[in-house]
Design goal:
Helix content is 35%, strand content 19%. The chain has helices spanning 6-17, 48-55, 70-79, 96-113, 125-135, 171-179, 193-198, 200-205, 240-243, 259-276, 286-292, and strands at 25-29, 31-32, 44-47, 60-64, 83-85, 120-123, 142-143, 150-152, 155-156, 183-185, 189-190, 206-213, 219-226, 231-234, 300-301, 311-314. Helix 3 crosses helix 4 (96-113).
């Protein structure tokens, strides 16, 4: 009888366990428009920068509409490989974004507990929403000042070295994050560092990876990841370094478009899409997949209408 060395068996087992999905599809939540856009029919939107950000890392996108039913959202969850909660200005306690995010949050935790990884990512408002869902309270959100058009370097915590997000990052990525103003902030709310440490549910759920300080000296959470679950979030906008050049209502002047800032954006996108590759969810057939993908929609060039977003998908 031929004896196969243990090291070969172990390698084969590990390889089989980590066969990755090379066709990841990620859901992005739509949200209500604050006001109608003249000449464009529709009441909800997704900024095209999020779509391009994910596509640039090898993923495709399914829009999750504000009127998606619970039944259809359960179905979509079984098809896609991750979800991005975008920035914006929705109600974090009672809005279509909140309701859809909460259902997906619960489904993702249930799936993970069944060894079915399903990553979630929150950007800006998305970080705040994930914090509210983890803490089960809107009280974790507070006002920030001087953070609506500001770039920062990150004050990385000691946790970053052992985090999933940054433990394998090249040294130049870490150096850029720590020394250059490459992370763009466009928010007037935040989760303060004090709140994070005081709220047991929040600090038991998330690991704090970086902080920043607003114009009045308040420390706020700027990067975090789930301790157990594959949930990630930044208060800053990695997609904007590459895809947002418009300046609207005084915002956008300080977006960093340097090659170093673009490198950071690419690293963050690649990381999240790599997490989504671990999900084995699949559409049942190509026809169903085509019906859900965002390709049937065309982005509008909204910057020429004075909007901050360069392009938007309007639904």
């Amino acid at each position: 009888m031929t004896i196969i060395p243990f090291v070969i068996l172990n390698f084969a087992f590990r390889t089989w366990c980590y066969v990755l999905n090379d066709r990841p599809i990620i859901g992005v939540l739509a949200q209500r428009l604050q006001e109608p856009i003249p000449g464009i029919a529709g009441s909800s939107y997704i900024s095209a920068s999020y779509v391009k950000y994910l596509e640039g890392a090898g993923a495709r996108v399914v829009p999750i509409h504000i009127n998606t039913t619970k039944e259809d959202l359960n179905r979509i969850f079984s098809y896609i490989n991750g979800v991005l909660l975008p920035g914006g200005d929705a109600d974090l306690l009672d809005s279509p974004v909140q309701r859809n995010a909460e259902l997906l949050f619960d489904l993702a935790m249930q799936a993970f507990n069944k060894r079915d990884p399903f990553p979630m990512w929150g950007t800006c408002m998305g970080l705040q929403l994930l914090s509210v869902l983890a803490a089960k309270s809107g009280s974790v959100i507070s006002r920030s000042f001087g953070t609506e058009d500001r770039t920062f370097s990150l004050n990385l915590t000691a946790n970053y070295e052992t985090s999933r997000m940054f433990s394998d990052a090249p040294p130049n990525v870490i150096k850029i994050l720590q020394t250059q103003n490459v992370t763009y902030n466009a928010h007037y709310n935040c989760v303060s560092v004090d709140t994070f440490h005081e709220n047991r549910k929040l600090n038991a759920f998330f690991r704090l990876l970086s902080t920043n300080i607003d114009a009045r000296g308040k420390g706020f959470m700027s990067t975090m990841e789930g301790i157990e679950f594959p949930f990630y979030a930044t208060q800053w906008h990695p997609e904007m370094n590459i895809y947002e050049f418009a300046i609207g209502e005084g915002l956008g002047k300080n977006i960093n478009h340097s090659k170093e800032a673009v490198l950071i954006s690419q690293y963050m996108a690649n990381f999240f899409v790599s997490e989504a590759r671990k999900s084995k969810h699949r559409f049942p057939d190509r026809e169903t997949e085509d019906r859900y993908l965002i390709y049937d929609y065309q982005p509008y060039y909204t910057a020429k209408r004075g909007y901050f977003d360069e392009q938007m998908y309007i639904f």
